[in-house]
Amino acid sequence: MAALTLARAYQHSFDTRPNVTLAITGGSLNALGDCVAQIAENTFSPPTQERRKYDFVRTVRFFAYGATISPFLGRWNAFLEARFPLYVTRIIRRRPNAAGGLVRPAQGPPPISYFALSKRVATDQLIMAPTGLVLFIGSMGMMEGRTRSQIKQKYKDLFGDAILANWKVWPLAQVSVITSSVFTSAKDVHFDTCGVLWTLYLSLLNSREDKKQDDRVVENKQVIFQTEVPYEQHTTHKGTKHVV
User: Fold this and answer.
1) How far, in Å, CA of 29 to CA of 52, rounded?
2) Under 8 Å CB-to-CB from 160, ≥6 apart: which residues?
3) How far apart, in whole angstroms, are the C-alpha atoms of residue 231 and residue 17?
4) Which of 62, 69, 96, 210 could serve as 34's disulfide partner, Cβ 3.0–4.6 Å?
């Protein structure tokens, strides 16, 4: 009963304020994914590794990204539904009965065009998947205060692994969600729910890269400190200064 009430409340909110509803839902689920990722990092880290304090700012960054991108994803999904309709329109033929009337055949659910489904999934994976990863890596780098060279290194380290993982997981998830849902709002919720696990993966991947970049900064500072040659100035017998 509570789930039905919540679903009706969400549907009403989606019908009246779709962008705000998607932003709050997507941001909250993204924040949940990062929260689970941070807890998992501390729970499954080796005993010798120092445990990190919970980073609330990191969760806020994920909320901000999810709240910003979710309305665009909702519009993108609506575009895909309009561009690649899945349900085939079939002609209903009536047959005469014994009394001379017409009998309307029983109607089941409309058949799905799997060719249109494959085109929809392929379009999403070839256009939106890489675009979303580019936006994610870039926005996280900027919100973390990384330099331009560090953001470029993020792209080199993260994009290849993330896009391959995306293509291994999301097509199957999309097919299962699309074929089991009817309403756009329900599909958006299902996609966001599946996205919690994806956000968990991205959070862990991004955290590993952050640690790697922080270690590089520390190493560079140590190298600079060690290679600095102290010098002193002393006066020669001619009165000129000579640098050693």
Assistant:
1) 22
2) none
3) 67
4) 62
Output phi, psi for 240, to 5 deg: -90, 155
Quick one: 139 exposed, middle or buried, by C-beta within 10 A (0-12, 13-18, 19+)?
Answer: middle
Helix H or strand E segment including 243? strand 241-243
- Bridge partners (DSSP) of residue 232 are none
State how far the Cα of 10 lies from the Cα of 29, in Å rounded to an integer.
15
- Check: CB of residue 189 under 8 Å from CB of residue 3: no
pLDDT in tens, 114-132: 899 999 999 999 999 999 9
Nearest C-alpha neighbor of 175 from the set 219, 107, 114:
114
In 3D, which of 2, 18, 17, 16 has the Cα closest to residue 187?
18
Kindly report the number of other CB atoms within 10 A of residue 80's CB atom. Answer: 22
pLDDT in tens, 196-236: 899 999 999 999 898 888 887 777 776 666 665 554 444 45
- b/e sequence 94-114, b meaning 16+ C-beta within 10 Å: eeeeeeeeeeeeeeeeeeebe
Q: At what angle do helices 184-227 and 148-180 cross, to 10 degrees?
A: 160
Burial of 1 (0-12, 13-18, 19+ CB in 10 A): exposed
Q: What is the CA radius of gyration of the chain?
A: 28
Q: Please give the DSSP secondary-structure letter assigned to residue 124.
A: I
Tokens of 196: 């919690």
pLDDT digits (tens, 9 = 90+) for 61-99: 999 999 999 999 989 989 998 999 887 665 555 555 555
